[in-house]
């Protein structure tokens, strides 16, 4: 176990990360993982006139310290109303932590962005940049549940298919420090897991859900700032790159259809169900709906066993209405409609009416209600 005691006015907890026994020698000797994991927690509780004094007893990577204090934190404070600066007291280290073999990693979730990174790296990247390790983490104390075990088994199955080593990690960061693993904090949590093994990871790919031109500093949706985060979070030991930022989600989904294993194991669900010990999509939630519509547009939904085509055909307006339920500014809506036009696919006329009915049913709420109400 890799742990740190967090003590102060706002917390009195031990934050920990667990790793498989064979990766214990690769655990970092720095506090980078703990600082980055708690960064939104600290910024959200700090005040302009009485900033939190954060004291780290172990060193912080010098590059990370510089980029956080002089670039990342000031940018967050300038653009996010619920963040303020804090004071960081620590020693720094400017050498790489690597002592032997190094790895190239990425997160393995089974989703569209994750699978795209794995496929692109295998099919297109030069040998020096091909992925060697897949990281799957659980930070909400679900690893001992049947669903949590199934998700870990799925990650191992995916890693075995791509010929990479699976690393299954856990942490108490969500239940003990954050309300939920939401968009405001998940980027920091993911990075913290990587930093915990900074002696191992030389390169790490962040599977971005956004294109380069849609980069945006939004504390409620940190995934929109992947490009900025990759720059600010890289250290002397680990360089972050983002992947998939040259394509929209619908284009990445089409790329995935070339691989039968991926189509069989695609896992995008917000409300997954267990069937015969395997984690499966519900084929009704918002994330499943997005992927199902993108697959239908290119004529591949009927051939994708990860989703229920029969359920889709039974009530297609339930799904198409979601497209118009999304605001016109929604990047997903824009990308999917552009894809439909490109493919010559005619969206059902009644989809607009179905969308309006969804808006009425949800009392005018057209985005995730947590997006702007949740705070770290």
General description of the model:
This protein is an alpha/beta fold and about 375 residues long. The protein is about 40% helix and about 15% strand. The chain contains 15 helices and 13 strands. It has helices at about 30-45, 60-80, 110-125, 145-160, 175, 185-195, 225-235, 250-255, 260-265, 285-295, 310-315, 315-325, 330-345, 350-360, 370-375; strands spanning about 1-5, 10-20, 55, 60, 85-90, 90-95, 105, 135-140, 165-170, 200-205, 240-245, 275, 280. The strands form four sheets. A seven-stranded mixed beta sheet has the order 1-2-9-8-7-10-11. Helix 1 packs antiparallel against helix 6, helix 2 runs antiparallel to helix 7 (about 225-235) and helix 3 packs across helix 8 (about 250-255).
Query: Topology as H/E string?
Result: EEHEEHEEEHEHEHHEHEHHEEHHHHHH
> Based on CA inertia axes, which overall geometry fits?
globular
The strand order across the widest sheet is 1-2-9-8-7-10-11
Oligomeric state, counting identical vs distinct chains: single chain
* Largest sheet descriptor: 7 strands, mixed
Cα separation of the termini: 25 Å
How many helical stretches?
15
Quote the average pLDDT. Answer: 93
Give helix % range: 40-55%
Total beta strand runs: 13
Low-confidence stretches: none
Strand content: 15-25%
What structural class is derived from the secondary structure elements? alpha/beta
What does the radius of gyration come to? Answer: 21 Å
